[in-house]
TrEMBL record:
This is CAAX prenyl protease 2. It comes from the Eukaryota. Its EC number is 3.4.26.1. It comes from Callorhinchus milii. It is a multi-pass membrane protein. It is found in: Endoplasmic reticulum membrane. It catalyses: Hydrolyzes the peptide bond -P2-(S-farnesyl or geranylgeranyl)C-P1'-P2'-P3'-COOH where P1' and P2' are amino acids with aliphatic sidechains and P3' is any C-terminal residue. GO terms for cellular component: endoplasmic reticulum membrane. GO terms for molecular function: metalloendopeptidase activity. Residues 138-189 form the CAAX prenyl protease 2/Lysostaphin resistance protein A-like domain.
Length: 201
């Protein structure tokens, strides 16, 4: 029994590492001397990350077949996509995020050179949103990166870790893969001489 649990854990951790390495590795498939904020680099990385994100559920399915862990009626429900409890699943994290960021949002509003009403006018202005949607960096930071990261690092990794570590430990273990996957930013900053090693540690 202990040997089977150890094998499940090693397979789960290896699969999570493979997903994390695949996600980060896809960013560097296209060799380029250009910085990460260049539109050409962003477009290429969009392509790579979207392909890896589309293949990640396949990785979860392979893990599920290999381990024989048939929890949930379907792969989508295993990943957390289901109608049951959808309202709570959508509203409670939003409420929690609003509470956690209430202080910084109030501070931002107080620090703005224009008033609250003027800020709201900017937010409902169509030109503001057109400018955002046409900016590749905004799309990367606000749309593509969060969606693909949630799919790979939460929807695909958590189901692999829960049978191994349990739900509570998996909640704290999964962000470790996410954090390690972001270490490539340090290497990129050093590559373009935007910082030193001592700054990061």
């Amino acid at each position: 029994m202990a040997a089977a649990a150890a094998e499940l854990c090693s397979v789960s951790v290896a699969a999570c590492l493979l997903l994390a390495c695949g996600y980060v590795g896809s960013l560097y498939v296209w060799r380029s001397p250009l910085p990460r904020d260049h539109p050409t680099v962003i477009k290429r990385r969009f392509t790579s990350v979207l392909i890896v994100s589309a293949l990640s559920p396949l990785g979860l399915w392979i893990w599920r077949e290999y381990t024989g862990n048939k929890t949930g009626p379907s792969l989508l429900s295993l990943m957390g996509f289901r109608l049951e409890g959808a309202l709570a699943a959508a509203s409670l994290p939003l409420l929690l995020t609003m509470v956690l960021f209430f202080g910084p949002l109030i501070q931002l509003c107080m620090d703005l050179p224009w008033g609250f009403v003027d800020g709201v006018k900017v937010l409902i202005d169509v030109r503001f949103w057109v400018q955002c949607v046409t900016d590749m960096r905004w799309l990367r930071n606000q749309v593509v990166a969060p969606l693909t990261e949630e799919l790979v690092f939460r929807a695909c990794m958590l189901p692999m870790l829960v049978p191994c570590t349990g739900l509570n430990r998996a909640i704290f273990t999964c962000p470790l893969f996410f954090g390690v996957a972001h270490f490539h930013h340090v290497i990129e900053l050093l590559k373009f001489r935007q910082g030193t090693v001592s700054v990061f540690f």
